[in-house]
Amino acid sequence: MARRCELTGKAVQAGKNVSHANNRTPRRFLPNLSQVSLMSEALGESVRLRITSHALRAVERQGGLDNFLAKARDEALSTKARRLKRAVAKRRAAAAAP
């Protein structure tokens, strides 16, 4: 499983540990991922996603998962999140039509 946020696309970064003697050794900066269940109001169900704590705060700030997905770029989203975005948009359009 890739260490990548499903909503923001934040992934592993590479860098170096630098000692007091200025010795440089390679290291990896891992994203703070957690498995969460987020409620989608449009679909009426909860969705399990593996996202960073930064993305969780962004979802709360936007006013929920549906609003976050509506404003998110498709390039940053995983395939699962892209399918979810299309389903939410379709459901919202159907609710607004009548």
Brief summary of the model shown:
With 98 residues, the protein is of the alpha+beta class. Helices cover 36% and strands 29% of the residues.
Proportion in β-strands: 25-35%
In the predicted model, the low-confidence regions spanning at least 5 consecutive residues are none
Based on CA atoms alone, the radius of gyration comes out at 17 Å
Compute the average pLDDT.
95
* Main beta sheet strand tally, sense and closure: 2 strands, antiparallel
Structure annotation, total helices: 3
The number of domains is 1
CATH level 1 name: Mainly Beta
Q: In CATH, what is the homologous superfamily?
A: Ribosomal protein L28/L24
Can you give the helix content as a percent range?
Answer: 25-40%
The run of helices and strands is EEEEHHH
The tally of strands reads 4
Shape: elongated
What do you see in this structure?
With 98 residues, this protein is an alpha+beta fold. The protein has one domain: Ribosomal Protein L24e, Chain: T (Roll). The protein has helices spanning 53-62, 65-71, 79-96, and strands at 13-18, 24-29, 33-40, 45-52.
Please tag this protein with its features.
98 residues, alpha+beta, Ribosomal Protein L24e, Chain: T, two-stranded antiparallel sheet, 4 strands, elongated
What's the layout of helices and strands?
Layout: E1 13-18, E2 24-29, E3 33-40, E4 45-52, H1 53-62, H2 65-71, H3 79-96
Antiparallel strand pairs: 1-2, 3-4
